[in-house]
Write a structure and sequence with these properties.
The protein is mostly beta strands. The chain has one domain. The chain contains no helices and 6 strands. The strands form 2 sheets. It has a 4-stranded antiparallel sheet with strand order 2-1-4-5, with no helix packed on it. It has a two-stranded antiparallel sheet with strand order 3-6. Strand 1 and strand 2 form a beta hairpin.
Length: 67
C-alpha cells in the first residue's frame, strides 16, 4: 500500500507526522493497488498516539521519499 497526507498544502508521502494536530484542510489518500484508491477529505486532523512506542522499521530523515 502507498499513500500520502496533505495538510494545508504540505504533502507527506508514505508517512504521517507525529505528533499531529492541525486545523487546516487535510487530505489522506491511500493507494491500495492500480485500481483502488481511498481518499478522505477534512477541515482538520488530530492523531492521538496510545500505548508504548515500539520499533517498526528504519526511516532515514531528510530523504526525498518521506517528504
Amino acid at each position: 500500500m502507498d499513500g500520502e497526507i496533505i495538510l494545508g498544502g504540505e504533502r507527506h508521502r508514505n508517512l504521517i507526522p507525529v505528533p499531529l494536530e492541525v486545523a487546516k484542510l487535510a487530505e489522506l489518500r491511500l493507494i491500495c493497488d492500480s485500481v483502488h484508491t481511498v481518499t478522505v477529505l477534512g477541515r482538520g486532523v488530530k492523531l492521538e498516539v496510545v500505548g508504548e512506542p515500539r520499533f517498526v522499521e528504519e526511516f532515514r530523515t531528510g530523504s526525498r521519499r518521506g517528504t
